[in-house]
């Protein structure tokens, strides 16, 4: 089989990703001791987005999937962004 | 026609992803609640969120990240015919799930003993914004905790299927889908941890 799903991810790749996730967790805990005002949330969300990107791409194998999977993930995230964005159009300018 | 079973690997996995998207939207709704009420009650969210203990949240973050590593490696192990290693890693993941819930038990018990739970007298005396914070906190982490328990049950069932040979190096999609579910549980915690345990301190 030459399909994408025949790709076996080596152990080392997962261990490297796990180390990166631990480092990012350390950074998010470290940066939280500084009061950055409204930026607290945005910095935390940016780091969390990087962490989830690693989990999705490697642990969840998305990097090795075909375009249909990637496109559907993007659509789901776009729907989530619309969901959040339109709620805030209402809430902030009420 | 001697017992040939048609396997649609891509279809099985795509179906799992579609289900995971609905889960993302479910938790997305809870994160919207958090964001809207944070915008409305910033001071109360900080005073209430300050009560959460970073050690519980951080400890559980390490437990879940490590358990995700175990599941990811177990798939590679099974496909390399290292069945015992794959089983051991799944057992360790279920152990991590138990550790997570024990941690959560102590965390919630400590909150309850301070009268912080819906319906208590202490709760009724809190400011509205603080009550909202703890309601969303219990709802979100409670729903996530249910997902941890379900994920552990699914992984235990997958272990049974590996033991019986139904899931093997040639046919591993059930393990892969169970793993996807477990990673989603990890993914949601990656957002819960900073939003509830860090940014409000």
Any chance you could write out the topology, listing elements then pairs?
The complex is a heterodimer of chains A (94) and B (201).
Chain A lengths: L10 H21 L7 H21 L7 H26 L2
Helix pairs in contact in A: 1-2
Chain B lengths: L8 H32 L1 H8 L4 H26 L3 H31 L7 H5 L2 H36 L9 H26 L3
Helix pairs in contact in B: 1-6, 1-7, 2-6, 3-4, 3-7, 4-6, 6-7
Description:
The complex is a heterodimer of chains A (94) and B (201). Chain A is mostly helical and 94 residues long. Helix content of chain A is 72%, strand content 0%. Chain A has three helices and no strands. Chain A has helices at 11-31, 39-59, 67-92. Chain B has 201 residues and is an all-alpha fold. Chain B has one domain (32-198): Four Helix Bundle (Hemerythrin (Met), subunit A) (Up-down Bundle). Chain B contains seven helices and no strands. In chain B, α1 (9-40) packs antiparallel against α6, α1 (9-40) packs parallel to α7 and α3 runs antiparallel to α4. The model of chain B has no long low-confidence stretch (mean pLDDT 94). The chains are: A mainly alpha (94), B mainly alpha (201). Chains A and B meet through α1, α2 and α3 of A and α1, α3 and α7 of B.
Question: What is the β-strand count of chain B?
Answer: 0
- Taking all residues together, what is the mean pLDDT of chain B? 94
Number of helices of chain A: 3
CATH class membership of chain B? Mainly Alpha
Instruction: Assign the structural class of chain A, choosing from mainly alpha, mainly beta, alpha/beta, alpha+beta, or little secondary structure.
Output: mainly alpha
Which structural class should the secondary elements of chain B be placed in? mainly alpha
Alpha-carbon distance between the two ends of chain B = 65 Å
Low-confidence stretches of chain B: none
Q: For the record, what is the CATH homologous superfamily label of chain B?
A: Cytochrome c oxidase, subunit III, four-helix bundle
Number of contiguous helices of chain B: 7
Total tally of structural domains of chain A: 1
Largest interface chains and counts = A-B, 47 and 47 residues
First-last Cα distance of chain A: 57 Å
Low-confidence stretches of chain A: none
Strand content of chain B: under 5%
Mean pLDDT of chain A: 91
């Amino acid at each position: 089989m030459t399909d994408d799903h025949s790709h076996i991810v080596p152990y080392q790749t997962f261990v490297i990703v796990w180390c990166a996730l631990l480092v990012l967790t350390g950074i998010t805990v470290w940066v939280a001791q500084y009061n950055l005002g409204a930026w607290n949330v945005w910095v935390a969300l940016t780091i969390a987005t990087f962490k989830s990107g690693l989990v999705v791409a490697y642990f969840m194998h998305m990097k090795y999937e075909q375009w249909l999977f990637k496109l559907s993930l993007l659509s789901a995230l776009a729907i989530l962004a619309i969901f959040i964005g339109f709620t805030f159009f209402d809430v902030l300018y009420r | 026609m001697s017992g040939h079973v048609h396997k649609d690997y891509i279809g099985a996995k795509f179906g799992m992803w579609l289900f995971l998207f609905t889960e993302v939207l479910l938790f997305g709704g809870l994160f919207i609640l958090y964001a809207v009420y944070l915008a409305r009650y910033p001071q109360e969210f900080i005073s209430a969120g300050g009560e959460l203990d970073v050690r519980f949240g951080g400890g559980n973050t390490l437990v879940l990240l490590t358990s995700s590593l175990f599941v990811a490696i177990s798939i590679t192990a099974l496909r390399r015919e290292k069945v015992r290693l794959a089983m051991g890693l799944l057992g360790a993941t279920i152990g991590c799930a138990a550790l997570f819930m024990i941690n959560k038990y102590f965390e919630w018990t400590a909150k309850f003993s301070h009268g912080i739970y819906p319906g208590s007298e202490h709760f009724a005396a809190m400011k509205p914004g603080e009550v909202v914070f703890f309601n969303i906190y219990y709802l979100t982490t409670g729903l996530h905790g249910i997902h941890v328990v379900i994920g552990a049950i699914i992984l235990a069932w997958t272990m049974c299927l590996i033991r019986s040979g139904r899931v093997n190096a040639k046919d591993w999609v059930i393990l892969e889908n169970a793993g996807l579910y477990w990673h989603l549980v990890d993914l949601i915690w990656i957002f819960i941890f900073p939003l509830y345990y860090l940014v409000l301190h």
